[in-house]
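pasting for ref
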Amino acid sequence: MNEICVLLAAYNGEKYIKEQLDSILSQVDVAIDIYISLDLSTDLSLDIINNYKNMHKNIYILDYGQRYGSAGQNFFRLLMDVDFSNYNYISFADQDDIWLPNKLYHAIEMIKLHNCDAVSSNVLAFWEDGREKLIKKDYPQVDYDYVFESSGPGCSFVLTRELSLAIKKSLIDKKNEINKLWLHDWYCYSFSRSNKFKWYIDNEALMLYRQHDNNEVGANNSLASIISRVKTVISGDAFNKVLVQADFIDFNNKPRELLKRNTFFSLIKLSMMANKCRRSSTEKIAFFIIILILAVKRLFNVK
């Protein structure tokens, strides 16, 4: 039986966490333990989790009472504080999704089939009004996609013990700088690819990815969310996050070098590399256009 450590980050999750936990506990053909880190909450999340803990011997809750401020920082806490050295695989879980019964078993089969260190996948986003949308992430990987994007939502990730322990060490070694990082899923993917671990993106969507007003990073489905995302990128904030993470991991490659120079000519060169920096065709085009805009702003010193 494959032994899996599921790391679940929660915050004010009373509305959906029961459904999420039930779907994790219903996974077939795997042996799981669930470790929960609950960010300081104002609802009944702690009571719900303690009730589940009392009913199930394979549910553990980390010391409660601290404020982490984001799902990413909460997951970094789990990665550093949970001892998963005796598990075969490690998986991430949000508090509000629904896992299909064979999600974990299928991911492990993909790891074995493709002889890789981690797998992520497409997910099926769903809304309370009944809408559904496939969030496609299995576009072909390119040379530098990991510098600028994750391989998908972290809740679709399953990692081998070897990779997970390497990620843990990288975080502990620089634990005083972790508050600079943004998203745990992007970090794990970027660390893995830059350190030559093999990552496979699967086309099977075996998780229902709940969308609601409190999603930190969701399906980016609305026009307002897309506009907000574009504004963030054009402002330069998104690329600041790219450089912060690149500096933390300390990998050297051409996109990082060109972004750091931040001159008109370096940004023009980077725009010409769009095909190697994003996976989907649409985002390759968007990347090219946005970098050109940043180059023009740099040329005319526009803030």
